[in-house]
Write a structure and sequence with these properties.
Strand content: over 45%
Mean pLDDT: 91
CATH topology: Maltoporin, Chain A
Oligomer: single chain
Number of helices: 2
Protein name: TIGR03016 family PEP-CTERM system-associated outer membrane protein
CATH class: Mainly Beta
InterPro entries: CHP03016_PEP-CTERM
Number of domains: 1
Structural class: mainly beta
Low-confidence stretches: 1-15
Largest sheet: 22 strands, antiparallel, barrel
Radius of gyration: 24 Å
CATH architecture: Beta Barrel
Order of helices and strands: EEEEEEEEEEEEEEEEEHHEEEEEEE
Number of strands: 24
Helix content: under 10%
Shape: globular
Length: 467
């Protein structure tokens, strides 16, 4: 129910067609006292990291482009690991091919995922195991038409591809067909939507395909200005290559509370084919702070997680457009990833919560998360908890102090650990578009085996500039 009526919220494109191009460069020299994250016999290393970046944004009358790319070259002086280039990409484009009716969406990403039990640092820079690179691309043409002010029809076809850099036999393609009929603008007190979708996923390492069909109806009724009730009903069928096929009814009931335009709270529950289904969604925005919290259950695959990247957000927490998405939103630190890669679908329980305070000189953020993956084989089940506190303060006109504390806990039958990372740093503004920085960080993991228990200290000197 949290994403319902999306076809009714198409925002008009900007008319200016302005191009915003923001190139940047980041240089880092990093010293580590434990390059392989060993319990003993530690090896030091000097890592040079060069990261050019470019962010391009164009919003036009009938076409839009949002392109963000930042390759990162890593050079290891003592050769504790092979030199490497990591590609970070998020590109989206859309076009209106026939006025008010025919549209086309295009996208591509390059990212990394961390296998949860791997012995490597959260950013993948040190440790014997590198993060796993993967790439996605897709296209989605769709046709939409309105029947007066009573309803809107959308017919959409989507195809995408997921490729992993290693030969994992889980490279895949998918074809998806969607048909959605939703309410129009004739009433603000009720909204409804009927949808049907069929997805076929073809994996390179399997002879058969995953086939998923979902039929769903949703209805939202405004009771008062602040309160609304939401209902959903339908049927879903998962014909899967790995594990038992799943099919059954969908139903849920929820409440939506909107006391002000800045506050929204939704809660509900019901059933899906795989079992009980619950969701919670909360958001509150004040002049200088934003609170957010979500909980949801789902039935997904490693492929689904790979195609929902969070790289390079174009808007900040307050909804303001970020001019340079690469420079202002560096790729997030990978704390947890998919613990197994296959065509298998699994149940997921996910909690995400955050608080952000941002003033003229001070920025403070607290984030927390929990994700539980329930696989067919119990030994693959994972539970990951994370928490992070970050702080930055403008000490003077040119000097900024930053600090961060990151904690994660991983639980799995064959691998359990707690991990802490603490970092402190200072940045000095050389000019309007350039700065240097120095920082220190400490990583500590307490695992259930000696091999999985280690510490690492780093010193970093960096330069960053935009043009």
């Amino acid at each position: 129910m949290l994403g319902m009526f999306s076809i009714l919220s198409l925002s008009p494109a900007a008319q200016s067609g302005e191009w915003i191009v923001s190139p940047s460069i980041t240089l880092d020299e990093i010293y580590t006292d434990n390059a392989l994250l060993a319990n003993d016999d530690k090896q030091t290393e000097y890592v040079t990291r060069v990261k050019p970046g470019i962010s391009i944004l164009r919003e036009g009358a009938r076409t839009n482009l949002d392109f963000n790319y930042s390759p990162e070259y890593r050079y290891y002086k003592e050769e504790t690991r092979d030199n490497d280039t990591v590609h970070m990409l998020r590109a989206n484009a859309d076009a209106e091919l026939m006025e008010n009716h025919l549209y086309l969406d295009l996208w591509a990403t390059a990212d990394q995922t961390r296998i949860s039990s791997s012995r490597n640092s959260p950013d993948g820079l040190t440790g014997p195991t590198e993060n796993l690179d993967y790439y996605t691309m897709g296209a989605s043409p769709y046709y939409t038409t309105r029947f007066g002010n009573t309803s809107v029809l959308e017919a959409r076809y989507s195809t995408d591809k997921v490729d992993y850099e290693e030969d994992t036999e889980v490279d895949s393609t998918s074809q998806k067909y969607n048909l959605i009929l939703g309410s129009g603008s004739y009433s603000t007190a009720q909204a409804w939507e009927l949808s049907a979708s069929h997805t076929r996923e073809d994996f390179s390492g399997t002879a058969e395909d995953n086939k998923i069909s979902i039929f769903r109806g949703e209805f939202l009724q405004q009771i008062t200005r602040r309160w609304a009730v939401a209902f959903a009903a339908g049927y879903e069928d998962y014909d899967l290559v790995i594990g038992e096929d799943v099919d059954g009814e969908i139903w849920s009931v929820g409440l939506v509370f909107t006391p002000t335009s800045r506050t929204r709270f939704a809660i509900g529950g019901g059933e899906r084919a795989f079992g009980d289904d619950y969701y919670v969604d909360f958001e509150h925005e004040a002049s200088r702070s934003v609170w957010r919290a979500t909980y949801k259950r789902d039935y997904i695959s490693a492929r689904d997680e790979a195609t929902h990247t969070s790289l390079f957000q174009r808007q900040d927490a307050f909804g303001n457009v970020v001019r340079d998405a690469v420079l202002d939103n560096p790729p997030p630190v990978r704390v947890t990833g998919v613990s197994t890669l296959s065509a298998e679908y699994y149940e997921v329980d996910r909690v995400d919560a955050s608080y952000l305070f941002s003033a003229q000189r001070t920025r403070f953020e607290v984030r927390g998360g929990y994700i539980k993956r329930d696989y067919v084989v119990d030994t693959q089940d994972t539970e990951d908890s994370t928490a992070a506190i970050s702080f930055s303060r403008l000490i003077s006109r040119k000097i900024t102090g930053v600090g961060r504390l990151l904690w994660s806990d991983h639980e799995q039958e064959l691998s359990n650990y707690d991990e802490w990372t603490a970092s402190l740093g200072l940045g000095y503004l050389l000019g309007q578009d350039a700065r240097v920085s120095i920082g220190f960080s400490h990583l500590e993991r307490d695992g259930d085996t000696e091999l999985n228990t280690y510490e690492e200290n780093r010193v970093n000197i960096g330069f960053m500039a935009s043009f």
